[in-house]
Amino acid sequence: MRDYYEILGVDRGCDEAALKSAFRKLAMEHHPDRNGGCEEAAGRFKELNEAYSVLSDPQKRATYDRFGHAGVNGMGGGGAQFHDAHDIFNEVFGDIFGDMFGMRGRQNRGPARGQDLRYDLEITLEQAYAGAEVEITAPTTLTCEPCDGSGAKPGTSPTTCTTCGGAGRVRATQGFFSIERACPRCGGSGRMVLDPCEHCRGLGMVRKERTLSVRIPAGVDDGARIRLAGEGDAGDRGGPRGDLYIFISVRPHELFERDGLDLLCTVPVPMATAALGGMVEAPCLMGGENCDGNCKIEVKVPEGAQTGQTVRLKGRGMPSLRSRERGDLVVELFIETPTRLTARQKELLTEFAGICGEQQHPKSAKFLGKAKRFWDEVTGAA
């Protein structure tokens, strides 16, 4: 009789992981189902099974190392009874094929948790700023009340599945192995509904729409997610409900653009106000001593303001979800050139332009200097 270590191709001092790896590789290679039922392959596989059943057991392995084949005769080795082939397959290959062949979770399925649900909710920037209470109508699965989720007609009860005897699993032989899988008749529940409930048609659950109140926290941002525990689908056979996840999207605003906690707003400024300095009104989303009830705030425009220049108003932006911090309101100034001028206005502007010099238009003077040097280089002028 061949040495068990030689059969598996491992050293005597190998550890359990190496032993298992060697058996897995050779068992896959010599499995009868992969060799067309070849008797030689079947014999080789049986030999591998015998060797592994002894060496994988610490007590048997110690006895075999000391006394050889004679020592394990009568202990489940040397031609005596070994581990069931199904048990060895489950032990060695369960992590690969367990889910595929249904060899995990041999017990019939108990109450199952309900599915989580998703609801997409669009809110306004004002709601995101101040927080809000919003009502939503969401489709969900509820436990059938007439049958209390059993699926059986009121006054009756589900019966034990006659195919699996209530185990929820059946065993089928495939080649050399005996494979377990979910019972096809009861779906793994271990029970059958012979007289189904008319309200839910034996499902134990019904589909309905529910109206829920959702609290939107102040400062919520686009893409945020709110979890409502236990507001998802009902669980199977009395299992716990799933959760409802609210995914928030904030509708684009016609005046404000959000940048983190800051709010950005572009405000037109009359040309005269920009030149002389003064005050303009800007929209805001909060009150305060400088903000009236119409959500307007006075913004000071510095003398000589230019388009693109910004004025930052501290603490006038969005609130933070996790602290008492607030962002800023950033007002971008847009200097507006007057249109549809009267003859008198044109006359005054012409006069004004005539008396302005480089001091009044420093950027223009600087630009013209650069442009002149460029033109001179292009034309070759000295």
TrEMBL record:
CR-type domain: residues covered: 131-209
Compartments (UniProt record): Cytoplasm
Cofactor names: Zn(2+)
GO cellular component terms given for this protein: cytoplasm
Gene3D superfamilies: DnaJ domain, Heat shock protein DnaJ, cysteine-rich domain, Urease metallochaperone UreE, N-terminal domain
Residues annotated as domain J: 3-68
CR-type Zn finger ranges: 131-209
Keyword vocabulary terms for this entry: Chaperone, Cytoplasm, DNA replication, Metal-binding, Repeat, Stress response, Zinc, Zinc-finger
Gene Ontology molecular function: ATP binding; heat shock protein binding; unfolded protein binding; zinc ion binding
Principal location class: cytoplasm
Amino-acid positions noted as binding Zn(2+) 1 in the UniProt annotation, renumbered to this chain: C144, C147, C197, C200
Keyword Oxidoreductase: no
InterPro entries: DnaJ (IPR012724), DnaJ_C (IPR002939), DnaJ_domain (IPR001623), DnaJ_domain_CS (IPR018253), HSP40/DnaJ_pept-bd (IPR008971), HSP_DnaJ_Cys-rich_dom (IPR001305), HSP_DnaJ_Cys-rich_dom_sf (IPR036410), J_dom_sf (IPR036869)
UniProt CXXCXGXG motif repeat ranges: 144-151, 161-168, 183-190, 197-204
PANTHER family reported in the protein's UniProt record: CHAPERONE PROTEIN DNAJ, DNAJ HOMOLOG 1, MITOCHONDRIAL-RELATED
Function: Participates actively in the response to hyperosmotic and heat shock by preventing the aggregation of stress-denatured proteins and by disaggregating proteins, also in an autonomous, DnaK-independent fashion. Unfolded proteins bind initially to DnaJ; upon interaction with the DnaJ-bound protein, DnaK hydrolyzes its bound ATP, resulting in the formation of a stable complex. GrpE releases ADP from DnaK; ATP binding to DnaK triggers the release of the substrate protein, thus completing the reaction cycle.
Oligomeric form and interacting partners: Homodimer.
Domain remark from Swiss-Prot or TrEMBL: The J domain is necessary and sufficient to stimulate DnaK ATPase activity. Zinc center 1 plays an important role in the autonomous, DnaK-independent chaperone activity of DnaJ. Zinc center 2 is essential for interaction with DnaK and for DnaJ activity.
Protein name as annotated: Chaperone protein DnaJ
Organism listed in the record: Phenylobacterium soli
Lineage, top ranks: Bacteria, Pseudomonadati, Pseudomonadota, Alphaproteobacteria, Caulobacterales
Gene: dnaJ
